[in-house]
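I trust your eye. Have a critical look at both lines of this record:
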Amino acid sequence: MVEKVISECSEGDILAADVFNINGVTLVAKGTVINEYIKERLIDLGIESIRICNTSVAFENSSTPYDKFKKNYKGAILNTKNMLHDLTSGKPLDYQKVSLITSQIYKNINENDSIIRFMSEIRSSDEYTYTHCVNTAFYSMLIANWLKLSDHEINKVIQSGLLHDIGKSKIPSQILCKGGILTKEEFEVIKMHTILGYEIVETIDDIDRDVKNAILLHHERIDGSGYPLKASSDCINLYTRIVAVADVFDAMTSDRVYKKRVTPFEVFEMFQTVGIGMFDIKVLRVFLNNLAAHLVGAKVILSNGEIGEIVYIPLQNLTCPIVKVAFGYVDLSQEKSILILSMI
């Protein structure tokens, strides 16, 4: 980490610490990739220098860390597919496979940008069952790391995310893969995946009790509105709270057989409105603030037809980023009629 005068910062430099104004309000979050808009904004606000990581982001598509992550990700998907196929065919859960996939995911713990960039690109519904398990494990790992949990706990959180939907291997495929809206009776069958998943892992001594509880309770909510037990908040452990957020974020930003994906900013709005009483506030805050920092630089399509690049996301208004377009900037907090239609 080095201290740099802002005028000497380069595009691609990564913030090593949050930047605050004189009132202690966070202006730009740690992990944000510096661009010209952010440099100009900080200079205008009287910020003279910032702390920068010793490494920077390479913007070429062929960046080595990104390619390495893609290879690791595809390996994790393949192993997850094999693991779930075994369960579907009646075989018991192979903990060695669980441990292998967990290690494949954990080795990417310092590749935040590659993780977020790649997972926002692979949103096909074709293999959603497998990608959702792996994506939820990755997002859960990011949250656990941002919460500064120990390496041992992070690995257990990864397992919680990876196995959270394992009970769906016991749900009839005609219900699980139904292309339309589920009937009330079908939804009740789907909800059984929490209990079925718990039953799969219940007698496996190598799997931690908190991981087993996360599998059972990941659809429980802090306000008691979840399932299968309508558990109160004091019954919901940290791993479960982490997986609940990761699960919903990945589901909503993925194409599913019955529903198209939405943008991360629509999910941010859901979390900050109807979700505020349903999810753990600390987990939400850490996830949203850190994830937003890694969306700077993303390409988007706006509802007015323009293609732009996100150059700044105010932490006080995460749903309204600043977007650079062909002839200037669009501030979505001011241009209420313009929306982000999709990420590119």
The first helix runs from residue 36 to 44. The mean pLDDT is 92. The chain is about 45% helix and 10% strand. The radius of gyration is 21 Å.
